[in-house]
Write a structure and sequence with these properties.
Number of helices: 5
Order of helices and strands: HHHHH
Largest sheet: none
Distance between the termini: 38 Å
Shape: elongated
Structural class: mainly alpha
Number of strands: 0
Length: 147
């Protein structure tokens, strides 16, 4: 029950702060998204993108751990050949790629990164956001190739 309640709270906060980051970005171009509550407006203007980054990174790591634990639980005892020898023709391998929840958290993380220049009031926030995303992708590629 505790994990379910924590998931609901983290999901609510992630949706709320993604809405706030979207309001920051669209507000720069003159489009106003309605902020549903006063606390969300205050939190967004004080530390919205940073909170979005932190909550999305936390949820992303949890979703990744859940997927890996589920893959460990669903491993085939005896391997795929054992299942085929018992006559089970429909053998589905465990999921290896990212789940929908992981992709959603990854998108929220990127939204938080893009919202930082708009939040700080940069002169050209689009260019700054592009540089931040390019630096992130180059760093991730360099770290993956170093393994």
């Amino acid at each position: 029950m505790k994990q379910f309640l924590g998931t609901i709270i983290v999901g609510f906060l992630l949706i709320a702060f993604c809405w706030g980051c979207s309001a920051l970005i669209l507000g720069h171009y003159g489009l106003r998204l309605p902020i549903p509550s006063r606390w969300l407006g205050i939190a967004t203007w004080q530390a919205g993108p940073i909170l979005t980054l932190c909550i999305a990174a936390f949820a992303w790591s949890r979703a990744s751990k859940w997927r890996r634990l589920e893959a460990m639980r669903d491993q085939w005892p005896g391997g795929a050949a054992g299942h085929l020898a018992r006559g089970e023709l429909a053998v589905t391998p465990p999921q290896r790629d990212a789940s929908f929840l992981e992709r959603t958290c990854r998108t929220a993380f990127l939204l938080g990164i893009v919202a930082i220049p708009y939040w700080l009031g940069a002169n050209q926030p689009e260019g700054t956001a592009f540089v931040l995303l390019a630096a992130l992708f180059i760093t991730v590629k360099a770290l993956r190739s170093a393994k």
